[in-house]
Amino acid sequence: MISRAMKFSVTTPTSILFCMFAGLALNTYPGTLAAHSGHSHSTASPPQGYSLVWSDEFDVDGLPDPSKWNYDTYRNLDGWWNSEEQYYSHSRAENARIENGQLIIEARKDGNTLTEFSDYGGQDYSSARLFTKDRASWQYGYFEVRAKLPCGRGLWPAIWSLPEEPGQWPDSGEIDIMEYVGHDPKRFHATVHTADNNHIMKTEVGEKIKVKSACKAFHTHSLLWTADAIEVALDGKPYFRYENEGEGEGSWPFDRPYHLLLNIAVGGTWGGKKGINKRAFPAQMKVDYVRVYQANEADKIGLK
Fold this sequence. Notes:
Blueprint: E1 19-21, E2 24-26, E3 33-36, E4 50-56, E5 70-71, E6 86-88, E7 96-99, E8 102-107, E9 125-127, E10 129-131, E11 141-148, E12 155-163, E13 174-179, E14 187-193, E15 205-211, E16 219-225, E17 229-234, E18 237-243, E19 258-266, E20 283-295
């Protein structure tokens, strides 16, 4: 989910090296399509030597736990990046709540009910953008989110990460663990953004994977992030890997704490590329859990 610029369709830089591991492509050409059958049962698990350091199991009904989650709303009045069309609410149960052990992020077509909010910018749609900024951030670890996404043209849900300390995008980096656009209903996308690797320079690096049940079932999206590499997996099967080649911050700004974000955007340069289906609303992103693991101190030496 690009924070300050237009979204893109992933293209293929020629400088990426490739390898095959256990029949699954790692370091594959960004933009190629990996096959995946899709299933709701997760086989994901943290690497050996990692322990749970933070989690939300969403066990208590009501608004999200304020000790764990904050609301990103600062662009409501001026309009959000990427020409997105949603208003992100704060502590509004219609857009973010916990029900029956799940976090519900709900996008709604209810702009006429938002005029009471001082930061309302005239949007037709409302949604929520939750993040752990000022609550929790991590440098390296294994991150696991089990979620079910909404189907519908014009929807753009994401699970992603940004630096805790603000910086100039894309120089300070961005990790997109999962993005989904409703007009491409059977694919998940994973991408990294850096000063050297971004869509403005046409050097962006990412991968997409075909999943029949992308918006019809729960899937587990995970990120393994070390000082040496970033690896994204779906239901325990890696499909995107980005390595630290020691070329400096331009290609590897991922050496600082990052926080997590969960949201549904509406429309925009990528999400709304083929318009917005008004019948898709209300649309719910359901999150079963969010878990963060980090390597035990004794296992950090020589970690790859």
